[in-house]
Amino acid sequence: MSAPANRRDFLKRGSLAAAGLLATAATASAQAASQVEPAPEHAPHPPHADPAVPAHIKAEYEGFSRFHPGRGNDPDSPYYLGKLVPGFRKAEDGPAPFVAPDLDKLPYVMKDGVKEFHLVPQPVVREFLPGYKMNVWGFNGSMPGPTIEVTQGDRIRIVVTNELPEETTVHWHGFELPVQYDGSSTMTQNPIKPGQTFVYEFNVHEEGTFFYHTHVAMQEAFGMIGWMIVHPKKVFDPPVDRDFGLLFQNFFIGPNQTVADSMKMDWNWHTINGRSGPYSTPLVCKHGERVRVRLINFSPMQHHPIHMHGHTFWITAHEGARTPKSAWIPRNTELVAVAQASTFEFIANNPGDWMFHCHMTHHMMNHMVEQVGPRIRHDDSVDRFLANLETRPPAIVSPTAKGDEPPGYPQKMLGMHMSPESMQQIMAPREMKGMRQGVSMSMHGLMTAMRVLPDDLYHRVMETDEDIPPGEIFAEIVKRFGDPEHYQRAPKMMTHDKHGH
Ligand SMILES: [Cu+2]
């Protein structure tokens, strides 16, 4: 079927579905509330939700639409859940650039046909949240280290100069390389002493999601890892428009401390690419695109069930290699164990700001030391707050609990108290523009967002310097694709009021 014919058909069905919806609503209000109306054959989809699809864009694939949520007609179709629906990017344009928010890329120089990188293991200060500057270990001033991005078939040389106060080695996780360059401390090489340099060099015949990391266990718990992306020589089919990476880590950093403690068995700080929610920069894509997301878990001890709202995705690769299409699995939550990498792809056919997070409850909170008071207090000790435990009032379960401090409960149930300056720092990236007022209160620890925006809204958010009021983009999406009569905007200044009113 040609694209224009498809579009006419699509519009016609859209109007019919909308008419059906109105009729259904009218009937339902006149009948008993318990009665269930049969669902229309196609999901209710008001005509105003139809994006302006140019004639050259194919929107429908055997019942699956690039532009509105749905599964497709047949689980055995290659297009079921968008499985093989291509992105807009042409394969001949090469792989979509890899984007790991909040991290830089490691530059290289070409020397006699070899890509040469310089990597410096060193102690670094990383700002997990505005004002929370943590003493961790990383590479080249960053934790995680800068991203190494190469292409299958490259020969690479990594010159490692150790600026740590102790010995280290660097391991190239997952590569099938000559053993002397594997970076396994003492098993394959002498540790690199402080101030010394060691040169790793090997051919990359693999493709996939890899990473480099120290091979000293305690240094791993301090954060010593970096992305290592190898693009395939020939772009994978179907081509994607976006290639994002989220790297999940846990740390233990005690109250009134800034130094990560690698000996703990529990973990209270959680970072995505080295930042904690809501300071992690959201992912933004356009409505209808094919999007790839790579996940790495480099936590010391704990796994992460990573869940994305509003879409079903296909698991297309694990750390070692691309998975054959016949073995792809549709999911909405992917469990990523320690040191594993998982890759999924989906068609962004459901516009909105979608939660994207680890589902472990403790990983959806930062530092979890609220019961002993603020995280960092100058000239104060933890003891005063701990002393309160004996005298604190009994737990009261009542709707009269004030604000976000229910009496008797040690933890605050909602929100995060931040100065207006810190809040400004969090809301500053363009990726946050137009999200609902107070959105930062819902993204803590290993939580971020996948924003799926229609072209014009994407342009306003990502390609202009327009000052967009909080909630404006979200409200516009509700207007076009949702149920605007039943939508309530967020109360103003919610995030700046200590007591939530
Ligand atoms: Cu987790």
Provide an overview of this structure:
It is a single chain. The chain is an alpha+beta fold. It has a domain of 74 residues. The protein is built from seven helices and 25 strands. Strands 3, 14, 15, 17, 19, 20, 21 and 23 form an eight-stranded mixed beta sheet that branches. It binds copper (II) ion (CU). Copper (II) ion binds next to loops.
Shape: globular
**Biggest sheet layout:** 8 strands, mixed
What oligomeric state do the depicted chains represent?
single chain
Structural class: alpha+beta
Q: What ligand species are in this complex?
A: copper (II) ion
Strand content: 25-35%
Integer average pLDDT: 83
Instruction: Please tally the β strands and state the result.
Output: 25
Radius of gyration: 25 Å
Q: List low-pLDDT spans.
A: 1-49, 370-375, 392-396, 398-402, 494-501
N-end to C-end Cα span: 55 Å
Helical residue percent? Answer: 10-25%
Number of helices: 7
Topology:
Layout: H1 3-30, E1 60-61, E2 64-65, E3 98-99, E4 108-111, E5 114-119, E6 121-129, E7 132-139, E8 145-151, E9 155-161, E10 170-173, E11 197-203, E12 208-214, H2 217-221, E13 225-231, E14 242-251, E15 269-272, E16 283-286, E17 290-297, E18 304-308, E19 313-318, E20 321-322, E21 329-331, E22 333-336, E23 341-347, E24 352-358, H3 383-386, H4 388-391, H5 420-427, E25 447-453, H6 455-463, H7 472-481
This protein binds copper (II) ion.
